[in-house]
Amino acid sequence: MNTPGFNESRLPPWTDRAKALLDESVHGLDAATLSRLNRARQAALAQRGAPRRPGWAWMPAGLATACALLLAVGVWQARMPHTATPTATPPSTAATQGASMNAADLDMIASDDNLEMMQDLDFYAWLDAQDQDNNG
């Protein structure tokens, strides 16, 4: 039985003689012995069962699942409407007003064509506070 890629030059010389003796002994076996050997082989293979994977082999699947779950939670959080909690005093600075801004407000502020608006951010924060007082 030659195995592809098997280098026979590394084997000691006595292995050729042992292989020849084993091959001759197989040809001399009767059908009952061959059948018994085959049944024993099949029983041994059945007991072996499916090969078990080591615990670390499941790590890539677990990591991929964790990344997909994190991405799903991030997308879900981004789509949820964020409501600002009402405050007793109107906000007076842009930093406190930034907590209640949504994505559309941030896109408008971040665009290059609204530079004048950024200079008067305190005024817009005051104006928004006045609007909330009138609606509430």
Low-confidence stretches: none
Number of separate helices: 7
Alpha-beta content class: mainly alpha
Q: Compute the gyration radius: what is it?
A: 39 Å
Task: Please name the defining characteristics of this protein.
62% helix
Question: What would you say about this model in short?
Answer:
The chain has 136 residues and is mostly helical. It has seven helices and no strands. It is rod-shaped and about 105 Å long.
Structure report:
Helices cover 62% and strands 0% of the residues. The chain is an all-alpha fold and 136 residues long. Among the domains are: 15-47; 91-136, no CATH class. It is built from 7 helices and no strands.
Helices, strands, pairings?
Blueprint: H1 14-27, H2 31-48, H3 59-79, H4 94-97, H5 103-110, H6 115-119, H7 121-135
